[in-house]
Amino acid sequence: MTPGTEHQPQMSVEEFEELERHAPETVWLEFINGKVQVKPLLDGNHSEIYMWLLEQCMRLRPDLRLHPERGLKTEAYRKGRARADGVLVPKGSLKGLGEWSETSGVLMAVEITSFDSDTNQRDRVEKPDGYAAAGIPVYLLVDRDDCSVVVFNQPEDGRYRHEERLPFGAAVKLPEPVNINLETEPLKDFVE
Questions:
Q1: Which fold has domain 46-190?
Q2: Which of 21, 106, 130, 182 has the maximal Cβ count within 10 Å?
Q3: In the chain, where are the structural domains located?
Q4: pTM of the entire structure?
Q5: What is the secondary structure of 119-142 as a DSSP string?
């Protein structure tokens, strides 16, 4: 690597958005830390976990909506583009927004780990930092590798100050502004 180029983005945000618009429907692209990344397509258990969480949110917070596969402007100065598995927002707050939206109304971003080589760096390192830098109050990571739920909150200076990891089956408190208590026992059914 040439000295001084380790933090140079592969392309501009505008070039990424143009590339993403022309990508085949079978590929989802993200632009994280200046690098284009391919987000893996979903498997059945991933979809079932998302639907379980959607049902919980609708039952416990009917004033909110959990939207799937939402494009967000993330990282410092919004130079990143992440496609969250889910974003929890007040009902109607996405009306009129484009594919890549600001994060000002997002209460929680959700990621469910995939079984690919990039999931550790993407879901456990880069996305928490990007979501924190964008000011998203809560980041929920459903980590299928170690059968845990990780709740990140209190974003400050591009990092979440608080992180709590609980095993599938535990009671999980999603803090304000989400304010939902999840009983995660059903997640054990989606582990292979």
A1: tt1808, chain A (3.90.1570)
A2: 130
A3: 46-190
A4: 0.79
A5: HIIIIIIIHHHHHHHTT-SEEEEE
